[in-house]
Design goal:
Keywords: Membrane, Transmembrane, Transmembrane helix. 39% of the residues lie in helices and 15% in strands. The protein has 17 helices and 18 strands.
């Protein structure tokens, strides 16, 4: 009885693996690159004036599947009609206004780009103890003892640091593309009108100039490739007479600001109050933009609107309605609390805030809305958000070293100063203040809250209170300004870092003509941890390499080369030779002589 040797063919194994791997890889890749679609990400929509129920996701999808030539044809027809009947040279908008909010802000928090300071070989060198061993070796008792110490350090320290450095270099490279993938994918699908990054653009304020420049280049050329800094000429200082930064489109046909990133300074960019210096702020402003400035955007009045109903100092002083306008205030709040290292920089911040207050419309007027973009969140008692109140001070000079939130006094400056709200109903405008919203980062876990004060509370000094946004909505605390409960929403945007799910925030702000007030809503679009990004691309790499190898094996087989036989180190004929199991069978297998 004969038995044949059975070896699995490598090409057959590879073929079966690819049959499973390729479909899985394709499916995961489609999900990763279309994750905003699968996650139904979309900017919230303004409420419809009719009974029609609209889906933000479907409205977003329509902007992708409606043929571009239809929109262009509409715009061209409108342009022709306008050119005939008017001498206005500005490009007209399409006939039908968009159902989307005219201001859609893509908010990203705390990317914190790391670099060479997290790579051991960058600051320790490559195998430093090996160099020490060669340089200091001596044939003596102490020399041999030192050599043994160096040999142990090479094994336990240098080798570990080398492989950790290789891992970290790969990790940093992948992390840049992970963050870029979030920005690129969400920006493509949701189509924001504006974009902001709410501080901590880089990972440390203590970087030297060369390392800071490297990370700034990675920020613009890799993570946010294709984006641009807000032009310096548009980063305005508050003034009574000001130029508009732009117009908001009712027709969703202007993408100028969608390419610009409104950068906010964070503590890892310029430091806390006890760290901030003119050198740190100067290099940040050169790379990313000013630390304190404002932008103003006007919403054009709808066609046929009677502008005589608006406030006019000469013809209509009775009206409280102003032309709809959004005011974005970019504010460095790292040095609002004391003690600060640079009192001059702290004075500059407070002077800026005072100018914001002094150049704002009176609280009695309607139609303006303030969006405050900053980094450190307002004060909240322990238990409201993940980060609890925390302050630490430098031991050498007592200046502020670290903080999780602003102090109670600094927080009141936002609420009662910039927004003009008051605990007293006898204050101007009944203490209701200016309508607005506060956006910040710093607390990587994120938090959505509502700050309010009850003017009707009895006994003692009326204090500001804060609740989670959903709780405030559920308990109907929101929207009670007329009942003596003014308030403002504060959104601490969850970090876009992988450990926090690769989050992106979607803020919609629209104008309600009936109440002549701006309104806002917020949603999120998380990707998931960075491990998903790595898994998909590793599987894709394995699948591509495997497919190339399989095709190459097939090509070699066509020209007569047995790849399977070469793999096992034997010829095709010997692989098929019967195996002798007894002495008799072995003898029969021997060739006969003569």
């Amino acid at each position: 009885m004969m038995r044949f040797c059975s070896f699995p063919k490598p090409t057959a194994i590879l073929r079966h693996v690819l049959r499973v791997l390729i479909p899985v890889s394709i499916a995961l890749t489609i999900y990763l690159y279309l994750y905003p679609v699968f996650g139904t990400c979309a900017f919230p929509l303004p409420p419809s004036s009719s009974s029609e129920t609209r889906s933000p996701f479907l409205e977003t999808a329509k902007s992708h599947w409606v043929p571009a030539f239809l929109a262009n044809a509409t715009a061209t027809a409108t342009a022709t009609a306008t050119a005939i009947n008017s001498s206005i040279e500005e490009p007209p908008a399409p006939a039908l206004p968009s159902k989307k909010a005219p201001f859609r802000l893509l908010t990203l928090g705390d990317p914190q780009l790391e670099g060479s300071t997290s790579i051991p070989i960058e600051y320790l060198g490559v195998f430093p103890h090996a160099k020490s061993l060669v340089r200091n070796f001596k044939l003596s008792r102490l020399g041999i003892k030192q050599a043994l110490h160096d040999a142990v350090d090479i094994l336990l320290e240098d080798t570990f640091n080398f492989f950790e450095s290789v891992r970290k270099i790969i990790d940093l490279f992948g992390n840049d593309f992970y963050l870029a993938h979030i920005y690129r994918s969400v920006h493509w699908w949701t189509r924001p009108t504006h974009v902001t990054v709410l501080g901590d653009l880089v990972g440390s304020q203590w970087l030297n100039e060369a390392e800071f420049t490297k990370r700034a280049n990675r920020y613009w050329n890799r993570v946010f490739r294709g984006a641009e800094k807000v032009p310096n000429s548009l980063q305005a200082y508050p003034a009574e007479e000001y130029d508009l930064s732009g117009y908001l489109s009712r027709f969703d046909n202007d993408t100028t600001w969608a390419r610009r990133i409104i950068n906010v300074a964070g503590n890892h960019d310029i430091g806390y109050a006890g760290d901030i210096t003119t050198n740190l702020t100067a290099r940040f402003e050169k790379a990313f933009g000013k630390i304190n400035y404002e932008l103003r955007f006007e919403l054009p009045l709808p066609e046929g609107f009677d502008s005589k109903t608006l406030y006019n100092p000469d013809t209509n002083t009775e009206s409280t309605r102003l032309i709809p306008e959004l005011r974005l205030v970019v504010l460095n709040d790292m040095n609002l609390d004391t003690p600060a290292l640079s009192t001059q920089l702290q004075d500059d911040t407070y002077t800026f805030i005072n100018n914001v207050i002094n150049t704002a419309a009176a609280v009695e007027f309607e139609g303006h809305y303030t969006v405050i973009l900053t980094h450190i969140p307002l004060y909240k008692p322990t238990g409201v958000c993940v980060d609890q109140p925390f302050f630490e001070f430098h031991s050498h000079d007592g200046t502020l070293k670290e903080q999780n939130q602003l102090s109670v006094a600094a927080s009141k400056g936002f609420l009662e100063g910039i927004l003009g709200m008051s605990a007293s109903s006898s204050a101007p405008g009944g203490g209701k203040g200016r309508r607005g919203i506060i956006l910040n980062g710093h607390d990587h876990a994120g938090c959505d809250t509502y700050h309010y004060v009850n003017q009707t509370a009895e006994g003692g000094e009326v204090e500001w209170q804060v609740k989670r946004w959903r709780q405030a909505v559920r308990e109907k605390t929101v929207g009670k300004e007329a009942e003596g409960v003014p308030g403002v929403r504060e959104i601490t945007v969850r970090s876009m870092m992988g450990d926090f799910g690769g989050n992106a925030g979607l803020l919609s702000i629209w104008f309600d003509e009936e109440s002549w007030q701006w309104k806002a809503d917020y949603d999120t679009c998380p990707l998931g941890t960075q491990h998903l990004w790595w898994l998909v691309h590793i599987l894709d790499l394995i699948a591509v390499v495997g497919l190339v190898v399989y095709i190459a094996c097939g090509a070699l087989k066509v020209v007569g080369l047995d790849v399977d036989g070469l793999f096992w180190g034997s010829s095709k004929a010997s692989a098929k030779m019967p195996a002798a199991t007894t002495q008799t069978e072995k003898a029969r297998a021997q060739p006969k002589s003569g």
